[in-house]
UniProtKB/TrEMBL annotation:
It holds the Pfam family FAD_binding_3. This is Flavin-dependent monooxygenase. The keyword Cytoplasm applies. Residues 2-336 form the FAD-binding domain. PANTHER family: FAD DEPENDENT OXIDOREDUCTASE DOMAIN-CONTAINING PROTEIN, MONOOXYGENASE ASQM-RELATED. It is found in: Cytoplasm.
Amino acid sequence: MSVTIVGAGLGGLTLARVLHVHGIPVTVHEAEPSPAARTQGGMLDIHEYNGRLALEAAGLIDEFRGLVLEGREATRVLGWDGTVLLDEPDDGTGGRPEVQRGDLRRMLLDALPDGTVRWGHKVTDVRTVGESRHEVRFADGSTVVTSLLVGADGAWSRVRQLLSDATPEYVGTSYVETYLLDGDTRHPAVAKTVGGGALFALAPGKGIQAHRESGGTLHTYVALSKPQEWFAAIDFTDVDTTTARIVAEFDGWAPELTALITDADTTPVLRPINALPTGHQWDRVPGVTLLGDAAHLSRPNGEGANLAMYDGAELGKALAAHPGDAEAALAEYERALFPRSAEAAAEATRDFELCYDDNAPHSLLSLFTGQEEAR
């Protein structure tokens, strides 16, 4: 058995590592030209019921503990005027330890043999070339034919077309991403407002959400429930105009909150939120499957990376448990994947909508204060 993975994100790399642990040959093809080609996003809280289990299956739990940033599990919820509605410090129990996504990815890459990941391999097409065999074509004209193909290639997966006609659709809300660097020194008032971990300042149809990262970086996602045409009318290369247009939507808000927009040290980046249909699944196709966002792209609620890693670990374990019978492994994996991802997508939709519904931020507060009961 030899496995071909498309996509070197957290899910694909977790699968590759679990396969390596079990002595199964694997190759990962990644469009990015190198591991450092772009930043890898912000903070992730790794959950004990999925992400942590995946790291245990990968044999990397000790290395993971070395990446955890202490104190980042703190949570604050503020009103639009800066009123503190919830202020929960990190309790030190480590139930949802926070790490930088980029650090986690580097850990997984370092745990694979040299040459496992083929960088600069952007997929342009995939097609079936025989029973359980598929050809993957890359932008440089090269191809690979494999009898076991895994699409870990994210929201706009090329591999997904072998299994499903579904495509992600805009959910009606976009994020605008900004950063304040060296916040404690250069932006002390804003850093104090954000606190030690995550900040939520929400209102119906909008919000300012931030997280304290390593080095005092304050990473912000400004949420606006607007049609895509509204954002298309903004020239995001014009920083001043973009900033003025976005902050105008928060007129009257506390200046220590709007400073996360106006005082940004980076160019604002538009992040439209798209999702696959809840309950997305497909009929079994020999020799190919999906994991992570390629399989179940959902609204963001802190579960996406955890689910992708768990998918990768579960698929790797299934393949190891069925040597010489990949179809039995894929069928077993998908039987568990579909109900698991449908439940997670429904929960993500609920959580996301609670952030910006007509009762925001009190809907989110109710979720936080009743979190254990809700689970």
